[in-house]
Write a structure and sequence with these properties.
It is a single chain. The protein is of the alpha/beta class. Helix content is 37%, strand content 17%. The protein starts with a strand and ends with a strand.
Length: 490
């Protein structure tokens, strides 16, 4: 039996957890004989690109030039028709969208193309508290669009139980069975079995091999809370007053492949702080480090392709996010045997067991971050025990488990869809996803008094039963000729 064609759609293919999950999933689907490929908007900032990584893994990739993260009515409409044209040509059985923007545009394109199965992974919602500040009106509009789009979405993958609860609390859907928890997956062996000469790797940053290194890995963007991590550094350094403050070269801005000349001192080196990643806040964070007087204790590495090797050089991994769907880097660090200091936000408590694999602190609290870091740097036995527990804990978030759960969901939906006539047209898609069975009626958007609200059969109320559930549906009929669309009561 030929396995179905699957198309994944994501807003942009930057260096990030959601994008990495998508690449891993498609790569594994291809290995298992599925015909799968990826549509993505262009990466246009300093956060890096995973396009080459996708191609290296043999993934067919199609750029959608109009698919951008920002709200742009013209580009959004162009992206919708661009994706629709591809879906009509390829006729996949399944469309799987990722992130909010691609999720809305991609799922509507899939509905218009008559795709039998539509699934979505939010990877954290844009309207979640503390993630973005879009304002009340824009957030309400996005929330309404998400609720409307979810009406014809067959399944939603939440990366944690907390995200599932958020989806229900925001009223995106009332159907618990529509939401499936599938944890973000990490290729554990890539981090657990990495071989690196720690002394040489530290020397490439201009560090002593004995230097204690506290690091964070992630995009330099507001929701990652790097400003709070920087603010805690003076307190951490004050806990080590007998150490040398100037332990490394004056060059603290590194690009991949750059190296510093070690600065030698009679005193042992002070703890150092490594910021791995790039983004819109880099310059601002470098200026903050200078204002705090800790610029010689901080290294901004920029984008790196050797993250597993860098993690092996750390003594503590810090995640200071103010919002986090799950925190994939936490699993990567635990696989390397590192103790964790992280903020108690989003799905982080589901990954890090407080007091067992790491220490959880309240968000936006530099003092709490500093206390936790000092504790792990001074208590080597505790740090080692947490690292060992972390190695065991990390196996629960393997890429294999993630892909297995996703494929099982695909197969379950395909089995449920058996017997559905495939026409790849809008009207058929409406039937497939539980909308009206029926006869075309006209819809015209205007203020004419000639409009009157009717149901499909002309009565004021009509129920459409599908899979044992009732859906209230009505349409507007006009005397003018037009197109028929359903209006849902949310």
């Amino acid at each position: 039996m030929r396995k179905p064609k699957i198309i994944h759609i994501i807003t942009r293919l930057i260096v990030g957890g959601a994008e990495n999950d998508t690449i891993i999933t498609i790569s594994e689907l291809i290995k298992q004989g599925y015909e799968a490929f990826l549509l993505s908007g262009p990466p246009k900032n300093k956060e890096g690109s995973l396009v080459l990584e996708a191609k290296r893994r043999g993934i067919k990739f199609q750029l959608v030039p109009f698919l951008v993260r920002e709200i742009s009515p013209v580009k959004d409409l162009l992206a919708l028709f661009f994706i629709l044209r591809i879906l009509l040509k390829e006729k996949p059985k399944i469309v799987h969208t990722h992130c909010s923007k691609a999720g809305i545009i991609g799922r509507w394109a899939a509905l218009l193309a008559g795709i039998p199965i539509i699934v979505h992974t939010p990877h954290g919602h844009i309207y979640s508290p503390g993630r973005f500040n879009f304002g009340v009106i824009r957030t309400s509009l996005l929330l309404y669009l998400e609720r409307l789009t979810t009406c014809f979405t067959d399944r939603i993958f939440a990366v944690t139980d907390i995200e599932k609860r958020e989806i229900l609390n925001f009223g995106i859907t009332r159907k618990r069975e529509k939401i499936i928890v599938v944890h973000s997956g990490v290729e554990i062996e890539k981090y657990r079995d990495v071989c690196v000469d720690v002394s040489k790797k530290k020397a490439s940053f201009g560090l002593y091999k004995e230097a204690e290194v506290v690091g964070t890995v992630g995009r330099l963007v507001p929701l990652k809370g790097h400003c709070y991590f920087l603010s805690c550094i003076p307190k951490v350094l004050s806990a080590f007053p007998t150490t040398a403050r100037c332990y490394c070269a004056t060059v603290t801005r590194l690009a991949e492949g750059d190296a510093c000349v070690p600065y030698y001192s009679a005193k042992p080196p002070a703890p150092i702080f490594l910021f791995v990643g790039d983004g819109e806040l880099r310059l601002e964070l470098e200026e903050q480090a200078a204002r705090l007087g800790v610029e010689r204790n901080v290294i901004f590495t920029g984008l790196r392709r050797d993250v597993p090797e860098i993690l092996k050089c750390l003594d503590v991994l810090v995640l200071s996010s103010t919002h986090e769907a799950m925190g994939k880097v936490l699993v990567e660090a635990m696989a390397c045997g590192l103790p964790i200091v992280a903020t108690k936000v989003g799905g982080v408590p589901r990954v890090v067991s407080d007091g067992v694999t790491g220490i959880l602190v309240k968000p936006a609290s530099p003092s709490a971050l500093a206390d936790a870091i000092i504790k792990l740097l001074k208590d080597k036995k505790l740090a080692k025990e947490m690292g060992e527990h972390g190695k065991i804990r990390a196996t629960a978030f393997s890429a294999e488990a993630m892909v297995k759960d996703i494929i099982n969901t695909y197969l379950s939906l395909l089995k449920s869809a058996e017997g559905v006539v495939e026409s790849h047209g809008f009207a058929e898609a409406m039937r497939t996803h539980g909308f009206a069975e029926a006869k075309p009626v006209c819809l015209t958007v205007c203020s004419s008094a000639s409009h009157r609200k009717v149901s499909k059969n002309g009565n004021s109320n009509h129920s459409n039963r599908r899979h044992g559930t009732n859906k209230r549906k009505s349409v507007y009929r006009s005397k003018k000729r037009g197109t028929s669309l359903p209006l849902l009561y949310l």
